[in-house]
Write a structure and sequence with these properties.
About 40% of the residues are buried. This protein has a single domain, classed as Rossmann fold (3-Layer(aba) Sandwich). With about 190 residues, it is α/β, with parallel strands linked by helices. The chain has an 8-stranded mixed β-sheet with strand order 3-2-1-4-5-8-7-6.
Length: about 190
Amino acid sequence: MRVIAGTCRGKKLSAPSGETTRPTSDRVKEAIFNILTNRIDFAEIRVLDICAGTGSLGIEAVSRGAESCCFIESSISVTSILEKNLLSSSCKDRSNVLNMDAVKALHFLSIRGQSFDLAFFDPPYGSELYQRVFEKLGSPGLLVPDSIIVAECSSRNPLLESYGHLKRFDRRVYGETALELFTMEKK
């Protein structure tokens, strides 16, 4: 697992052993960023990486010029690997890590008035977090209008077409993984 482009290009990232996380493969990550590069300018955007795991997606966005990334990861042991990856990739100064449940973290960020231009969401497949996280993301203020949400899920279990003001605009399948891209419609 490595950073594909930007200031940290080629930097290898650590991952926990075993099956505690399912890091996004380099092939899928490259597909995500090819899609995003055609839609957004990474310079100065604020990124949210939910169920961040190793932080691979958020670190890639920061490497490509994102102003900041807030990483949400509930596992203490995985968070320590995420912190190590942030230090080794020199992304720590533009990062914030919340070691807490995803829904509680989104509520916390909303109360603080933080908003984001791009969000990655990669929970364990089959998780019940999808509905709850999308409801929070669709609440006023957390995402700016026209923001993009990239969700990874099992290719066998597609997500809904919309969640409130979040509307799916693309779906791509890579083996067992499906990428589902949503945008926050203007209200």
